């Protein structure tokens, strides 16, 4: 069995080889860039573009707020992790044991937990939005009048319970595994936990695929309900709710599609590129570029901005159409008044001419 010093030397060689790889450095720079840009855009656009939030029910607004909050925290966690890795591979080379600063076991835990938790919350809140929109579709006639928050609170509570359960499993396995006083070249965790992370990524990818199917079914069902809502005797609440559902699904469906791609690629990279390089302690690490979740941090605000711009364009076109209609009505009214005035003038002229032709009788 190798000593701690020998294992540390092996990790040092591995870290030095990673620091010389342009692919690793480029990946870390892209992660920092996408995470920072996504953090800023999500924070600004969510509070600035309020038109999309105002389109949906209060329950959907609450879940959307938690979803964006999870994305912001996830982007912040990814930024800190990627920035530190980039700095220690390029700048922080003053370690006594190695020319590249190595990582401790506690750092691996501290970095892994926030990233995985926020990714879970992002997916679970999107699923909660799908369930909430399904309820809104099934109760389209009366859902708009229900102003209580029971639906959103229940769905978020269920998401929180699942997250706490995952945390409990994570820390139970951390306690069951002996902690070695060793430093590592990359984020390294016990193999059981790494297996849990891969399984978690697979579950998220499958869950996102289910969410996409759910949103497609909601879209199809609401398109059918729109036909009924356009009838003259259709309730006003049904008409409003169907339009709200369609407007929200057109935003949520692209979000779910991007998440499917992100978690599927992450799962494939984790399984394809993951490797165990520490056989002595049965610890496992994966290459730094297996997680592509920063793509969603940028994709989400871009989707939000495009949809908000589209809604504003549709609103302007509707206002233009209404203004044109009003102008046409006014023009027709003016024309009718002009015709009536012309008819009156003609009649008065005829009467005037008739009276002028009559002989004048003097008494």
TrEMBL record:
Gene Ontology CC: one annotated term: membrane
Annotated Gene3D superfamilies: Rhodopsin 7-helix transmembrane proteins
Record's bilayer topology term: Multi-pass membrane protein
Transmembrane spans: 28-47, 59-87, 107-129, 150-168, 199-225, 246-274, 286-306
Name of a matching Pfam family: 7TM_GPCR_Srab
SUPFAM superfamilies reported for this sequence: Family A G protein-coupled receptor-like (SSF81321)
Subcellular location: Membrane
Primary location group: membrane
InterPro entries: 7TM_GPCR_serpentine_rcpt_Srab (IPR019408), Nematode_rcpt-like_srab (IPR053286)
Alphabetic keyword roster: Membrane, Transmembrane, Transmembrane helix
Protein name as it appears in the record: G-protein coupled receptors family 1 profile domain-containing protein
Biological source species: Steinernema carpocapsae
Organism lineage string: Eukaryota, Metazoa, Ecdysozoa, Nematoda, Chromadorea
